[in-house]
Fold:
Amino acid sequence: MGNMPKNKPGNINLTQQKTEINITNNNLPDPKIIEQFQQIQPDFAERIMVMTENEQKFRHSIISQESQRAILKYWIALIVFLVLIGLIVFSIILNALTVASILAGTTILGVISLFLNREKRNNQ
Structure:
């Protein structure tokens, strides 16, 4: 380095820097990074695998809970719908046509609005 020119006005010092960016689409780091961490902490790869497996179990439990809630909502909706149909039939038998028509109209409007809202959410 003795033959490098001194920093004088008009001289330009250039510095080159290498930056490496690793982008992955999964929960596991790049194998090169795991290898580097293995040198620092020998059980690093095992710990990453355990962490990833626990995360996957957690995600599956959340999805399972959401599915169970959706099924429960459908059963409740079916029961409410059948009760309303029963009330409509009972009102017709008692010759309370005004009550029957109001119940039938609101039931039909409710069912239609549910289907329209579902399609609206699916389109978004």
